[in-house]
Amino acid sequence: MKFRLVSSITCVSCCLAMAASAAPLDKEGTAEPSNGATVSPVRVGVLGGVGAPRALTVEGMFLVSERVLVGLEYGVLPTSTFGGVSVGVSAVSGDLRIFPFRGGPFFLGARLGRQVLDASATVTVASYGSYSGSTHQESWFFGPRLGLLWVSRPGFTIGTSVGLQIPLSHKVDTTLPAGVPRDKVVPSVIDTLGGGGVIPTLDLLQLGVAF
User: What is the pTM of this model?
Assistant: First the structure.
């Protein structure tokens, strides 16, 4: 009986030793590949998403040591009609996310970018008649946010976030005839989307790959 117990303990010990040698740990306590290859601390990937105020986004990203993500994002609201006014929005922004827990999904982040809005309409206004006009709005913005982003190694990526878009500057050019009140032809939602005030942002769903 005693011999069998000693033999079992010896066998288990050998198995544990073999497993440990097959997956050595790096300085951070992460198992290295069994073939001895070094795991790069930098990963690259791409994300596509849906949300607001820009309905569609695509982003190229670099993830460093599972702690810091730096990306470049392009977002667009395809031309849509609000109150008889056709409007389209596009933006390019730099993206930074910090993961407080290494490899964990929770992050704190921010965007810094430039947005362009173009709107046009042919409108009939009492006492003014019918006319065509357009509005071009440009703004620089800062966007703090927080969210979740799961990044597997390598492969599938999924995430979501909420935040704010805070205007840093706002420029408006318009071809509306002089004397015509803007509030007669430009819905408030257009001024809001154009970057004239603080608005909430939502990345409802982001999907992608990382290598």
Answer: 0.76
